[in-house]
Amino acid sequence: MSNELIYGIHAVTALLERQPERFLEAWVLKGREDDRLLPLLNELQRCGVSIQLVTRKTLDDKAEGATHQGIIARIREGKKYDEQDLWALLDQQEQPFLLILDGVTDPHNLGACLRNADAAGVHALVVPRDKSVTLTGTARKVACGAAETVPFIQVTNLARTLRELQERGVWIVGTAGEADHDLYQSKLTGPLALVMGAEGAGMRRLTRENCDELISIPMSGAVSSLNVSVATGVCLFEAVRQRRG
Fold first, then answer.
1. Which residues, in sequence order, are CB contacts of 122 under 8 Å at separation 6+?
2. Beta bridge partners of 52
3. What are 61-105's pLDDT values in tens digits?
4. Which residues of the chain have pLDDT under 50?
5. Is 58 left (phi over 0), alpha (psi -120 to 50) or beta?
6. Which of 68, 105, 158, 196 can pair with 7 through a Cys bridge, CB separation 3.0 to 4.6 Å?
7. pTM of the model
């Protein structure tokens, strides 16, 4: 089984609370002793994790330029979720609420979308296996712990997955600037999958063709589009508002 690195106080804390057995070792900035880091170090030591005190350059090199907040951990690779996990999840939910990202490649956007998904109560985040971002250390850090609470499911063929979701009664809503009605005119209750495309390119053709409905976010200013994680948050929480009603 391969290993991976995670960094940042939130990401390390979230994984330590849920899966402490995955930790192999940790590197911590020498001389940093503060109220945020010390409790985390004490818990790592209690779990028997080897801790090395290192220089900032060592941490910077390991994080490859990402912000590490003075701590990096090496962990065992976690469970990888696939289509079978998605169908099992649907069997457990009366009103499944899914987020699907098509063609999003920036780990910062993935992390922010995971954080939005967790806050909105999304049951899983789905991405295609190819030409899409994976769950990197950067994504975990930006997610602030949400990467440990929202299942990240990679599917082999997104168009086929969308068709099977439809067969299982899930309404597929895609976002597109040219849609003929907007987010606030759409019904977002019941079994739902919200599909967000990459910035600029949007959803791929086959993804678009397999949506039940296309919606847009009304834009009043000079800017023509939003960052995908911002747009995701807007759409998810309109769905939350409707679903609570």
1. 97, 98, 99, 116, 150, 236
2. 27
3. 988 777 888 999 999 988 889 999 999 999 999 999 999 999 999
4. 1
5. alpha
6. 68
7. 0.88
Task: Please calculate the CA angle 138-198-3 and round it to the nearest 5 degrees.
Answer: 30
What architecture is domain 83-244?
3-Layer(aba) Sandwich (3.40)
Per-residue confidence (pLDDT) for residue 2, from 0 to 100? 66
CA 31 to chain centre: 33
Q: How far apart are CA 124 and CA 90, in angstroms?
A: 10
3 state DSSP class of 172 = strand
CA distance 141 to 147: 9
Name residue 15's amino acid. L
Report the candidate in 155, 159, 134 with the shortest Cα–Cα distance to residue 89: 155
Backbone phi, psi, residue 193, to 5°: -125, 120
pLDDT of residue 195: 97
Across the beta sheet with 23-29, what order do the strands follow?
A: 3-7, 71-76, 23-29, 50-54
Is residue 64 within 8 Å of residue 5, measured between CB atoms? no
- Whole-number Cα distances in Å, 106 to 11, 25, 147, 234, 242: 18, 27, 15, 19, 29
Domain with CATH 3.30.1330.30 in the chain: 3-76
Would you say domain 3-76 falls under CATH 3.40.630.30?
no
